[in-house]
Amino acid sequence: MVPSGPLRYAARVLQAGGVVAYPTEAVYGLGCDPLELSAVERILACKDRSAAAGLILLADEYARIEPFVDPSEEERQRMFGRWPGPVTWVCTASSATPDWLTGGRGTVAVRVTAHENAAALCRAAGMAIVSTSANRSGRPPCRSALQVRRRLFRHVDYVLPGATGGRSRPSEIRDARTGAVLRPG
To answer: What is the mean pLDDT of residues 51-77?
Structure first.
């Protein structure tokens, strides 16, 4: 578990509209307040990624992502059957969810994580956060705080120390409407 001092500092950076690199189940992620457009734009620029791709929201509990989603009962059952854990679900977005999260589609990707440090960060910040791998498009993702500092130091406001969950592959992505696997995990 990350010591409380660095965790509180990372949470303050997120709350102030900054970008934090943090450990997830398999790799380091880049995160920010999903409603802070300037921070989202910084992450997209760092990754050299189009907003049309959409972004994943990560939370420690469903209540934090609930304002962003409007799942059917069937979608909800699929998601809750695999959470918390390393499965990201693409589900129906709420009408209030910004296009920069959905990529302009009617869906949004969400995950309730069981990773201790990532969940603690969401709890400390009091919000769901953007979660995308810490890397430039087409390059391997960072798997340690040191790799983030070496490759992306100019693009993040804080690197939260801690271990990833040891998974060799990023989270599985599934379509909550159909159950189909969109990216194996």
So the answer is: 96
Q: By C-alpha distance, which of 61, 19, 33, 1 is closest to 130?
A: 33
Q: Which of 171, 150, 125 is nearest to 20 (CA)?
A: 125
AA letter at 45? A
Cβ neighbors of 54 (< 8 A, separation 6 or more) are 101, 102, 103, 105, 107, 108, 109
Q: Are strands 87-92 and 172-175 parallel, antiparallel or unpaired?
A: parallel
Task: Indicate the number of domains in the chain.
Answer: 1
The amino acid that residue 2 corresponds to is V
- pLDDT of res. 3: 59
The per-residue pLDDT for range 72-103, each reduced to its tens digit, is: 999 999 999 999 999 999 999 999 999 999 99
State the CATH number of the domain containing residue 54: 3.90.870.10
Domain region containing 16 = 4-183
With beta carbons less than 8 A apart as the criterion, state whether 30 and 130 touch: yes
Instruction: Judge residue 47's burial from the number of C-beta atoms within 10 Å of its C-beta, 0-12 exposed, 13-18 middle, 19 or more buried.
Output: buried
